[in-house]
């Protein structure tokens, strides 16, 4: 019986210690109880992304790719845009076509969302070259969204922005610009049509 009572005492001590430790996490700085999470400042993500519903579906895109070294070449691409994850994200999948001028076509995917707590759009991009971006846009202005943030690629990091502009009922443009070698360079500009 004594061994059983010792085990129960140990379990009770460990449980009490766990409760005390848990209580320490619940208390905010200064000993006050932590409150509920802050209420969202803006609309729910799915509601806010309804303003981007016209981007849904298939697109044909044409434009140019450029490099910091000054080379530039024409590019053609296809794009597919669809609502994902219960309407809380918009996926934009882009695939360049192989051409004589573009023998190594790239592909990439944006995930566009909305942060209710910060009342802003978010954009995350990943491509076949190994680049990724994290960008934010405060909202629609003059028919467009200006996503600003950073690009991280193989061996570099730089300020980066994507400008998305509705150019008609069934068209839009997208321009990706990076700040490298002391200036803004348009790495890719595409005009997309149904």
Can you describe what's shown?
By secondary structure, this protein is mainly β. It has two domains: 2-31; 45-193, Calycin beta-barrel core domain (Lipocalin), CATH 2.40.128. Helices cover 15% and strands 51% of the residues. It is built from two helices and ten strands; from the N terminus they run H-H-E-E-E-E-E-E-E-E-E-E. The chain has helices at 2-26, 45-48; strands at residues 57-66, 72-84, 89-96, 107-115, 120-127, 132-137, 144-153, 156-168, 171-180, 183-193. A ten-stranded antiparallel β-barrel has the order 1-2-3-4-5-6-7-8-9-10. A hairpin with a 5-residue loop joins strand 1 and strand 2. The longest helix has 25 residues, at 2-26. The protein is globular, with a radius of gyration of 25 Å. Pfam families: DUF1579. Keywords: Signal.
